[in-house]
Every structure is written in structure tokens, then in C-alpha cells.
Amino acid sequence: MTRIEIPEAPDRAWCEAMDRADPLAPLRDRFDLPEGMIYLDGNSLGAMPKDASAKAQDVVTREWGTDLIKSWNSAGWFDLPVRLGDKLAPLIGAGAGEVIVCDSTSQNLFKVLSAAVAMRPDRNVLILEGSNFPTNNYIAEGVAAATGGRFSVRLCEKDEIAGAIDADTIAVAITHVHYKTGHVHDMAAITARAQAAGALAIWDLCHSAGAMPVDLNGCNADFAVGCTYKYLNGGPGSPAFLFVAKRHQGQAHQPVTGWWGHAAPFAFEPGYRPQTGLRQFLIGTQPILSMTLVETGLDIHLSADMAEIRSKSMALTDLFIRLVEQRCAGHGFTLASPRDAAARGSQVSFAHADGYPIMRALIAAGVIGDFRAPDTVRFGFAPLYVGYVDVWEAVERLAAIMNGGVWRQPEHQAREAVT
Amino acid sequence: MTRIEIPEAPDRAWCEAMDRADPLAPLRDRFDLPEGMIYLDGNSLGAMPKDASAKAQDVVTREWGTDLIKSWNSAGWFDLPVRLGDKLAPLIGAGAGEVIVCDSTSQNLFKVLSAAVAMRPDRNVLILEGSNFPTNNYIAEGVAAATGGRFSVRLCEKDEIAGAIDADTIAVAITHVHYKTGHVHDMAAITARAQAAGALAIWDLCHSAGAMPVDLNGCNADFAVGCTYKYLNGGPGSPAFLFVAKRHQGQAHQPVTGWWGHAAPFAFEPGYRPQTGLRQFLIGTQPILSMTLVETGLDIHLSADMAEIRSKSMALTDLFIRLVEQRCAGHGFTLASPRDAAARGSQVSFAHADGYPIMRALIAAGVIGDFRAPDTVRFGFAPLYVGYVDVWEAVERLAAIMNGGVWRQPEHQAREAVT
């Protein structure tokens, strides 16, 4: 992977030259984004592939409207979870038959945590990161409650995790890239540490899949989950994914035993008999329309080189940090992400006491990032459709807002629900 | 409700006259079905509303493509489960704030069964119908296994259910209309019997919602689940629904404790604090595109009179039985559904030793029904888009197939996966 150096004082001309030389630049044309908008929120909801509209039309009018139930076979609806999983697998270092696309990330985490807990009956602690996106920790609490308190959930911060793993540990379940700060956990080291202690390693890839190289099998990960609507551009709430290492398939079982996870779903047998493979992690009928659009995003990613994606991602985030610190110096921003690009995902967060109105003013100026309470402004840089000039322009607009005090205007101060 | 009498020997002219007089006939134009196809499988996957295509286009290109994350608020994505639930509620006799649209039927059943089991800690039997669509029984097994065998699942057939309820019963969880035979359970009587014994009554409405009047609150039901892609025309795999009676909200808790079920989902609190209302039964992000299309189907249903739907449904199924028994007499069909329309949902099944090739030949002739092993041919009659002449024409084609021995042709005998 090429490491792109950022000049001491980058200017617009340098950004323009970088865009011209960018090997990923042609892929920008495969997305539709509103004219003039700089979209730095692909880590919340990825941009729309141009093909999505025609695909949705085809699925609705032909697959559903014309072919109707025949499409379960003829359009391959039944096999979508597995077929899309196989397509996604190379992006996260998984093999064929190890990934399925289905349900939501929360549900998939419930399944893999339940499976892991059952695989370590003599252990009683599950380790998660305390400052993680809360749903992971809530789900872990729910699994613990459902087992009648057979185990407890221990919340650690980043640097405490390795030290917390011991002979009582069932599993560590960590989000690879932190949703708020963007810090990256060392998947290989934590997995090895967990397994050396006889524990399992479960990875949440919501903020890494599609944005950076992930090597689940290279790291010997046990389970993983993640979403497809952020950097994978699957559309709002598109089904999530789930990875079960080959060695666990047939051994690992999840408790929501629906008919899609049955060994013979169409035999309509009276008793449940689990599939021996990955499909035991399926439950019931999938939302086909949302599911089919996952493929349009995956197809773009599969035509890109992941090393180039990472290289550009590091450069864009380095550039953004440098420009904000230069051009908004003295305006109270404190970097809330790792300064070292290697320790950072594809996002940058700054803390600012007035983060909320600043983000509102920035959104009004056409630069879309998001705000995370209490004081974080967060910016995601999806290398497939964000360019160097976009970064330049985003900081131009931010600097204008700070210098002009625009964010102090009443319309930016008013609170509303923030997504 | 008007009970429509079928003549002793119905002819095509009578069917044509009935179609002309049908108050629901104008609604047929709000669906797209392929020219010449007679679609009698709306109990598997409902037909496509004409509005679905434009709706999908708008959601993909404008709500996703242009408005991006803003749509979580501006397009009301966050509130879709509740808003669509409120829209669906009157179709099943529920009140506002008692129904949400989310996840799959299997998942929703897992949630309500888990909640019910926790509400009856001193009881140890859950009663289901043995011949029910198997996923319900599989899910019940899964809930039992997850609680370490705290309770057992007792499978009864239709007439044994009431007698099986006793002081050990946690709940009865019954599918209102049987997926295969179409028999209707007496919701009021079974609910009353269960509650008299201190048990809960849980109803699966997959084969009744949208096809016949359902009165959950009139029957004092405790919980219900159901799907939106059959008679409600929500599209392939569209999210299911879930009903929690007002009196149980805040008392009933489900174990998949994701962030959408948290009392303050955007406060990102470290610990789980359940919503006190219906939203505790939400888990995580919903498949928005599939979800939005549920509304196009609901809007058509809300413009129809449910008494007229039921009246026509009974007439269509009565007519179909009469015509098959007259025109295919001596060809080996045995009625596998209740003969009394009042005891039947909106479907008719016949048993036939050669049901599989017969259904294949019929499908090849443009009449779409389905086959359920080992010997059932099943026909659904969605009153919003199936007419009397459709029934006449379907039996014409069936009679031609039987009289001509068409189903004996090799191409109809070959087995393939049946959906």
C-alpha cells in the first residue's frame, strides 16, 4: 500500500492534482450525489449507486410484479443471503460459505453472542468496549439476562481489553473501528490474545467493511457481524452480514430457530433440525427489495482495489486534519481521533463545545457530517466518492462558518433530533 | 355482512354478472398482474400495487439518493414501524400504539413468546398447533432451549387445544387461519379459555390479516404477529408486524435488547433501559426500502370495506369448491379445507395423489396456486384482485388439464424446489 504524504501547507491546486491522479476517481461516477453537496457521512448512510434506481425498478416491477412467487427460485431470492455473503466475503478476508447477508446488525450480534456463550459453558465473562456504539452492549446485556445471568458483561476501554482477558472469558466482542473516535483495534493481536486464553474473538465491522482492508481469516477471527448501509452503500437499513468461521459451522448454534435455519426448510418437518452449515444462522424470510440493492454497492467495491481505498482514505483524513488545524486554528477544535492514520478508520472526529450548532451550520452550507453527543463533530471519508478537492472545499466552508460566527445564528442553535 | 349464495350450477354468465356487481371490483385496477395470469397465490406473495413502482423510485432516488441521512427525520424513517403499525391496526382490531411493523414474523414470534414465558414464571407448558406452519413450532423450541428447558412445548391438533389448557399453561400460540387447510380457529373462544386458566393468548395472523375481519381487542388477545407480504401486498419479504395489548406494554419485555428498544435511543447511554411502550419490541435499524412499500398495500386495504372483503372471499371460495367438485368430478380431488365458508380463511386446498404435477401443469396454463407436500394443491383468493370469472377460468383450465391428462406429461412430473 502506498502511503501518500500530505504537504505542510496543502492548497487547492495540490488537491486538484491529487484528484486527477486518483486511480479511484472513475468510480465516483457510479454514485449519484446532489450537485454541490460534500457528503462526509458515508459512515452513517452510504451514497446511492446510480444502478440502484434501475435495480429497484426491476425487482419491483419484474421480479415481484410479473414473476411473483416464481422469483423465489427464478430470481434466486432464497439464495440471496448466501450469494451476497459470498460476494462480500473477499472484502473482509472471509472465504466462500462463511458470510451471509441477513437481518440487522443487532440481531446478528444477538445470534453470534448467544452461540459463543453456548460454546464456552464453563466461563462467565463477556468483554466489550464500554464506549462502543451502545447497541452492542445492550444486546450483550440482553443475552446475559436471557441466560438467567449465567455470565456477566464486562465493559473495558481500549487499552484495558487485552489485560482483562483471562480463563473466565467467554469472548471479546469488539467493534473494529470505533464509531465515534474512529480508533482501530488490532484485530490480529486481540484475537490471538483471546484465543490463547481459550476465549473467542467476535468482531463488529460496521465501520470498517468496505472502508479498509479487513482480514478475518488472516487474524483467525471466530465470528463477525457488520452492516452494509455505511461504506458498502447498500441503502437505508439494508440487511446486515454475519461471519462464522468454517471451523465453527455445525458446532455453533443460535437460538432463534426459524425455518430458514432448518436442515430441510421445505420438508416442513414437525421438529427443528439445524442446518449444519452457515445457514443455521438464518431465521426467516428476508426483506428482498432492501436485500437486492446490497448487490449494487458490492459490485462497485469489487471493482476497486482495497489497498488503494485504504491509501486514499488515510490521505483524505490526514489532509482534513491538517487543513482544519491550520485554517480553523484558534476556533476551539480538538482532534478526537487518533493522529496516526494507521490507528484510524476512514473518519475524523473533532471535539468542540459548540459542536452541535457548528454541524448544523455546516450542513446548511452543504457539507454533511454528523454530531455525536456531547461534543463531537464527526466526518466520514468514503474513498469511492469523496475526493481531495471535496476535503479542501469542506474546510473552506467550515473556516468561513467559524470566522464569520455563522454557527451563532439562532437557526443553527435550535435543537432537533439528530441522526 | 352479506352472505352471497352460489347457484347449484354456476356458469360463466353468472360469474360475469357477479363481477359487474362487485363493489370491490374497482380496486382490481390498483394492482398490476401479468396479462392472462390468474393469480391464486396471494396467500404466499400478494400482487404488486401499481403505486409500488413509483414509491420505490421515490424512496431510492429522492429519500436515499438526494436527502440521504436527513431522511431519517424528514422522510420519517425512524417512525415508520410505529406509523405503519397504526395504519395496519384497524385491519386487525387493534388500537393506535398497539402495532409495530418490523423484522420478520419468526423474529417477532421469538420476541412475543419470550415475553410471554417471562410473564408466567410459575408455569411450564406452551401450546401450539402441531400441524401449524413449522417455523412457529421451531421458534417455540428455540425459546424453550434458550431458557434451559424451563418449559416444554406441547403440540396439539385443532380440537385438542381447548382441552389441553390448564394451570400449567403459559400461553397458547396459534395461527388464526391454518396455512395448509385454511381452517379458522375461534379466536374469541380460545382466548377466553386461555385467560380463564390464567394463560396468555398469542395469535399469528399471517393468513388472516387483510383477508378477513380480525378483532384482536374484541377478543382480548394478548399478543399477535403476522406478515405483510401475503394478503397485505407489502412486497417480497416485507417486514412483519407485532401486536402487544396496551395492558401489557411496560410489563412485557423481549430479550433482543437493541438500541431501537431503548428508552432514549439517541442518548447513547451505557446501559440498556427499556422503552415502556410498544417500542421495546424494536431491535435495530429496519430495511427502509422494503418497509416503505408496506404502505402502498395498506392504503388499498384501507379504502376497502372489510365486511365486503370477507363476503366476497367466502363467495369466491364457495364457488371454487363447487366448480372443482362439479367439473373435475371423478378425477380424484378431495376437499382438504372446511366446507363451511365460515370455518375457512380465504383459501381452498384439495388433496390429490398427483398434486405436484397437476399444480405444475396448472401453473404452465397460467393459473398460479401452490403445492404443499405431500399431496395438497392450495389456492388463495385475494378478494381485492381476484374476480368471479377468474375462478371460473381457473377451473376451466384445471378441468382441461385433468380431462386431457396434461399433467402426465414429463415436463410436469419433474421435481424442482417448490416455494
From TrEMBL, chains A, B:
Catalytic activity, reaction form: 3-hydroxy-L-kynurenine + H2O = 3-hydroxyanthranilate + L-alanine + H(+); L-kynurenine + H2O = anthranilate + L-alanine + H(+)
One cellular component (GO) term of this entry: cytoplasm
GO biological process: anthranilate metabolic process; L-kynurenine catabolic process; L-tryptophan catabolic process to kynurenine; NAD+ biosynthetic process; quinolinate biosynthetic process
Keyword Hydrolase appears in the UniProt entry: yes
UniProt family annotation: Belongs to the kynureninase family.
Subunit composition and interactions: Homodimer.
Record's function text: Catalyzes the cleavage of L-kynurenine (L-Kyn) and L-3-hydroxykynurenine (L-3OHKyn) into anthranilic acid (AA) and 3-hydroxyanthranilic acid (3-OHAA), respectively.
Protein name (Swiss-Prot/TrEMBL): Kynureninase
Organism: Brevundimonas bullata
Gene: kynU
